[in-house]
Design brief:
Elements: H1 2-12, H2 17-37, E1 40-45, E2 49-51, E3 55-65, E4 70-71, E5 82-86, E6 90-94, E7 97-107, E8 112-115, E9 120-123, E10 126-129, E11 135-139, H3 164-189, H4 196-201, H5 205-218, H6 227-246, H7 255-267, H8 275-293, H9 300-320, H10 326-370, H11 372-379, H12 383-389, E12 393-397, E13 402-406, E14 411-413, H13 419-422, E15 425-434, E16 441-449, H14 457-470, E17 474-484, E18 490-501, E19 508-520, E20 523-532, H15 536-547, E21 550-551
Parallel strand pairs: 2-11
Antiparallel strand pairs: 1-3, 3-7, 4-9, 5-7, 6-7, 8-11, 9-10, 12-13, 13-21, 14-15, 15-16, 16-20, 17-18, 18-19, 19-20
Helix pairs in contact: 3-10, 5-6, 5-9, 6-8, 6-9, 7-8, 8-9, 10-11, 12-15
Amino acid sequence: MLNIYFTNYYNNNETSLLKRCVLLCVLFIGFSGFSQTTPKVITKVDTTSIKIGEQIQFTVTVEADTTAQVIFPEGQTFSPLETVEAFATDTTRKNDRMTLQKIYALTQFDSGSYKLPAQRIEINGEGFLTDSTRVINVANIAVDTLAQKMYDIKPLMEVEKSNSRLWKIILFILLGILVIGGIVYWFFFRKKPLSEEEKVALLPPYDRALLELKNLEKSKYLIQDEYKEYYSELTDIVRSYLEEDVNVSALESTTDELITKLELLRDAGELKIDDETLQQFKRILQTADLVKFAKSKPDTSVAENDRQSIEQIVHKTHEALPEPTVEELMEQEEYKEELEKKQQKKKIIYASVAFLGALLIAAAVATSYYGFTYVKDTIMRHPSKQLLEGDWVSSSYGYPPISLETPHVLKRQETKLTPEMKANIKDLQMFMYRSEKGFFSVGTTSTTLTQEVEPEFNKSIEAFIENLEKQGAKNIITKQEEFTTVTGVKGIKVFGSGDFPVPGSKELVDGKYSILLFGAKGLQQQIIINWLEGDTYAQEIADRILGSVEVKTEL
């Protein structure tokens, strides 16, 4: 076609030879450019026969212009084959063309013949499909049953539940108690070192009075002409001593009232003190009153003598006190014990209040951050919450396998097929877990039929509902929709609610359920989940289980 066009143009046009040559070069370059920009996709495999678990290398080669944008498939896009690894893209360039090479390592763990699916390669937004006619044969590993004995599958073994999480909780509680106990001990029960003032306050009145008089002697009141402060402290020392040791109200009494009270005690025989000492004490008190209220200023020597005289008065007064009787000493001892008990009781009360306060603060902080319901369920150890936050298990059950993630391992259920069931069912495998405390259960069923016919899901659903009604369930609501696993296997989801009987009793509770049904010719698979309506933790568990379901529908 292109040769005819050039011949006609050459014969019918009188364009100069130069223009014809230029036009010919342009058309040739355009045709050449068009042929170069057409991308090319080439695929190959290194082998089409492998053993179970061996790998094949699937190579995709793309030849395109250097400006082309090429996108290779990523992830598990080779189902039923599994992608082990997608190697980095190898790129080589030559002039204005480039060659991209992508290698995928693929494998399969079940024997059989598998068709290698076509892969979509995007080049500048346009899709190019690879060849899908190749068949990969996966052969079983030959087992010599004569040289090697065959054994039955070992029965399930009961494994003790791990207490690691419980020990962690106990450890945290013990650490919290130790911290709170340390704080309570440090602030309430620890014997704190006494200050000088506290040591002085604990001395007997007589010793304390003498010590305070010695300290007054060392003071700088007289050097600094602070006579009012000097005499105020002097009289306070002796008045406090008399009030504590002689049991006379001296601090609030005037000079005359105090002397009168002392005279009455002397006359009653309770204080053996001479009249001369009383008169000397009266004179010192009067001098102190003049200094404090009349701004009198005696000589320094007089002030020193008055302090010494007060010290002698304290000595004489202490000696003048009668010896306490045995009854009085007993009363004092009982009083001290009672006082110590009251102080101990106060410490216990303070410690309890501090402990409760710490708990309330911790509870308030946790409630504000997590919410009241979460904190309550954590303290009360909500069974569904424990399941949700425990260590989950990913496993496969039955054959062909049903893979899912559950809070606990599902246990195999012993099933006996009746003669009527054996007519249609070749094999029945059931696995289940039921919570001991909460109304939660999850189970799987793999049924192999005697004939290769499509499973009748509607009959299975009707049989399931009839079984629930026989057990006492009421008000069963049923909904149905299509369900697709992560790998694209399609099935049916039946879900709803109702009043279900509690195992072991006639009580009915509001519950919810979900059933997933998958199947192929001669095979039916089911996943059944039950939980309490309104239990948000159980709802999260059910959603997580449903999101992890993987099935294989090939025998």
